[in-house]
C-alpha cells in the first residue's frame, strides 16, 4: 500500500485548487500591424483570464491590484503580492503575437512559497480573434488541469 501511495505522489498533480491566483495576462505584440488593436487585445486577455479562472477554480487578481502592489511588475514583487493574498500558487501567462495569424501563449505555474517553477507550458494558436483566444484558453486550462 505504501508503494502505491508513493507512486501516486510522483504523478503530475492536476491543477484544480482554490489556492491558485492568476494575475493579468500580459501581451507582447511584435506583429508590427498598423491598426491599433489594444481594445480588442484587452478584451481577449480578459476573456482568457476568465476562462482559466473558471476552469481551474482560481482567483483573478485585477490589473489595479497589481499596479498598486507592483508598479514595476518585477518577478519578486508579483510573487510576493500573490502570496500576500493567500495564494499558494500563481499562474503567469504571456501571449506573444508574432504576425497577423500566429500567436503563442507561455504559461508558468509557480509555487509561491518555495518560489519555484512547477510547470511551464507553451502553445501556439492561429487567429487574433475572440474564437481563437477562447479555444486557446480552454486548451491551456485542460493541459494545466490534467498536469501536462
- Uncertain regions: pLDDT < 50 for 5+ in a row? 3-17
Please give the CATH class.
Alpha Beta
Strand content: 25-35%
Tell me which CATH architecture applies here: 3-Layer(aba) Sandwich
Task: Explain what you see.
With 148 residues, this protein is an alpha/beta fold. The protein has a single domain, classed as 3-Layer(aba) Sandwich (Rossmann fold). The chain is 41% helix and 26% strand. The chain contains five helices and six strands. The protein has helices at residues 2-10, 38-56, 63-69, 75-84, 130-145, and strands at 20-22, 26-29, 59-60, 89-97, 102-111, 116-126. Strands 1, 2, 3, 4, 5 and 6 form a six-stranded mixed beta sheet that branches. Helix 2 (38-56) packs parallel to helix 5 (130-145). It is globular and about 40 Å long. Residues 3-17 have low confidence and may be disordered.
Give a summary of the structure in a few sentences.
The chain is an alpha/beta fold. 41% of the residues lie in helices and 26% in strands.
Annotate the secondary structure layout:
Layout: H1 2-10, E1 20-22, E2 26-29, H2 38-56, E3 59-60, H3 63-69, H4 75-84, E4 89-97, E5 102-111, E6 116-126, H5 130-145
Parallel strand pairs: 1-3, 1-4, 2-4
Antiparallel strand pairs: 4-5, 5-6
Helix pairs in contact: 2-5
Which characteristics define this entry?
alpha/beta, 148 residues, six-stranded mixed beta sheet, Rossmann fold, 5 helices
